[in-house]
Amino acid sequence: MNETIRTIMERRSVRHYLPQPVEDAVLETLLNCAVHAPSGKNTQEINLTAVANPQIIEKIRLLAKEEFSRMPYNEADYRSLAVYNATHNPHYNFTFGAPVLVIASGPAAWPNGMADSALCLSNLMLAAKSLGLGSCYVNQLHWLSGNAPMRACLAGLGLPEEEEIYGSVVLGYSAETPRAAAPRREGRIRIVR
């Protein structure tokens, strides 16, 4: 099996990280891989903000917990997983102790924002795996994109308030051995000839 295919097939979400920082050169390589993802009409509208300061990541984590705790729980809303966990789990940590948090953002009105950011973040996660790091896609900051306290916090990091937060990834050196892939559900592939 070729290395690219092996990386895709073996990448798993990591939810336990070593406190070891990610080296600057490695982080720059990962971010460069991310911005080389395709984008709609090659517009390259997605911007990346990489937070590699543990105190700032902790501030974002605590603010997310506080803001989700204020929201009503609605079992029918997938986002309520964060509301439930923030309310019921005293150790709620959507960053899983990772030393790096990467936020993908872009113009709020950009119709291809989610797709373009997903491509960037997918490149980032695959590059991380290929360099021996773990990663996990996290939705929480996207869900808080319109939250005034979170936006004020992120504006302090240079993320413009007029940009939508489309997605984010945490990454670092894994403190766990990821499990093998769960079997894929049948019937998800169609080939028409």
Describe this structure in words.
With 193 residues, the chain is an alpha+beta fold. The chain has 7 helices and 4 strands, in the order H-H-E-H-H-E-H-E-H-H-E. The protein has a 4-stranded antiparallel β-sheet. Helix 3 crosses helix 4. The longest helix is centred in the middle third of the chain and has 18 residues. It is globular, with a radius of gyration of 17 Å. The model has no long low-confidence stretch (mean pLDDT 95).
Concise structural overview:
The chain has 193 residues and is of the alpha+beta class. The protein contains seven helices and four strands; from the N terminus they run ααβααβαβααβ. It is globular and about 50 Å long.
Layout of helices and strands, plus pairs?
Layout: H1 3-10, H2 24-35, E1 47-51, H3 54-69, H4 80-88, E2 100-107, H5 113-130, E3 134-138, H6 140-143, H7 148-155, E4 163-172
Q: In percent, how helical is the residue content?
A: 25-40%
Cα separation of the termini: 26 Å
Average pLDDT, rounded to a whole number, is 95
Radius of gyration: 17 Å
Low-confidence stretches: none
Percentage of residues in strands: 5-15%
Encode the helix/strand succession as letters: HHEHHEHEHHE
Shape designation = globular
For the largest beta sheet, what order do the strands appear in spatially?
A: 1-2-4-3
User: How large is the count of helical segments?
Assistant: 7
Q: How many E strands? A: 4
The main pleated sheet reads as: 4 strands, antiparallel
